[in-house]
């Protein structure tokens, strides 16, 4: 079973030498890496993999990086995925165009690999804080991803590993409604079959753990869809 506990980065780059440099450094950071060599392949992988971050070259065969960025940010299912655009175009007008199209950051080639990795970590801390060892909080609930501990009103709670991953996912974006399929993908991974109703069992266990000391139920059921925190 492959559970996505580390961020998945989609690298869209048609130059093999650049792909190898990025692969080596991203894997050294502990990231899962998938590659696309052209625009069509990139759009397919965005839909299939739902990566946590996209590193996107501007100049690509078939579909340009600018067009990929526009489409990803126009789709409600993918618009929250951060995009870091790479380009040899360093003029101000090109930087502005990239950012206004939806890129979350813009890095000019040739770039410092150390700086690029720092920029990617910054984006991931914003969108996937739990995977970066950060502390998350919601109301009186605090989750320490680095220490793998959860507290409510200052009291330690005992959660199983599945309930911990489930809570960390919900706490990344309080108020967001997650479908059962999205939660199964995030918590269990894609290469194993699990009935969607399994998530209901684990949500029940999570609620019981969160309410064990008399707290209210923070996990909201959205009928016909899934769950949200708050």
Automatic annotation (TrEMBL):
Residues 8-124 form the Response regulatory domain. Signal peptide: none annotated. The modification 4-aspartylphosphate is found at residue 57. GO terms for molecular function: phosphorelay response regulator activity; transcription cis-regulatory region binding. It is found in: Cytoplasm. Its main location: cytoplasm. Residues 133-230 form the OmpR/PhoB-type domain. Keywords: Activator, Cytoplasm, DNA-binding, Phosphate transport, Phosphoprotein, Transcription, Transcription regulation, Transport, Two-component regulatory system. GO terms for cellular component: cytosol; protein-DNA complex. Residues 133-230 bind DNA. GO terms for biological process: phosphate ion transport; regulation of DNA-templated transcription. CDD domains: REC_OmpR, trans_reg_C. It comes from the Bacteria. This protein is a positive regulator for the phosphate regulon. Transcription of this operon is positively regulated by PhoB and PhoR when phosphate is limited. This is Phosphate regulon transcriptional regulatory protein PhoB. The lineage of its organism: Bacteria, Pseudomonadati, Pseudomonadota, Alphaproteobacteria, Rhodobacterales.
């Amino acid at each position: 079973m492959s559970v996505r506990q580390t961020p998945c980065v989609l690298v869209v780059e048609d130059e093999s030498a650049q792909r190898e440099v990025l692969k080596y450094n991203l894997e050294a950071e502990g990231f899962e890496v998938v590659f696309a060599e052209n625009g069509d392949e990139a759009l397919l992988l965005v839909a299939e993999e739902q990566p946590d971050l996209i590193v996107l070259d501007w100049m690509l065969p078939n579909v340009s990086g600018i067009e990929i960025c526009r489409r990803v940010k126009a789709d409600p299912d993918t618009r929250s995925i951060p995009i870091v655009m790479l380009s040899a175009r360093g003029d101000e007008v090109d930087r502005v165009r990239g950012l206004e199209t939806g890129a979350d950051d813009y890095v000019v080639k040739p770039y410092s690999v150390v700086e690029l990795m720092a920029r990617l970590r910054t984006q991931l801390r914003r969108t996937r804080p739990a995977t970066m060892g950060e502390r998350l909080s919601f109301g009186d609930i605090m989750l320490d991803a680095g220490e793998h501990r959860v507290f409510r009103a200052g009291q330690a709670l005992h959660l199983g590993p599945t309930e911990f991953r489930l809570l960390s996912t919900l706490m990344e974006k309080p108020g967001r409604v997650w479908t059962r399929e999205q939660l199964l993908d995030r918590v269990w991974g894609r290469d194993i079959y699990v009935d969607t109703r399994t998530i209901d069992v684990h949500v029940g266990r999570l609620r019981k753990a969160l309410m064990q000391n008399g707290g209210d139920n923070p996990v909201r059921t959205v009928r016909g869809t899934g769950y949200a925190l708050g």
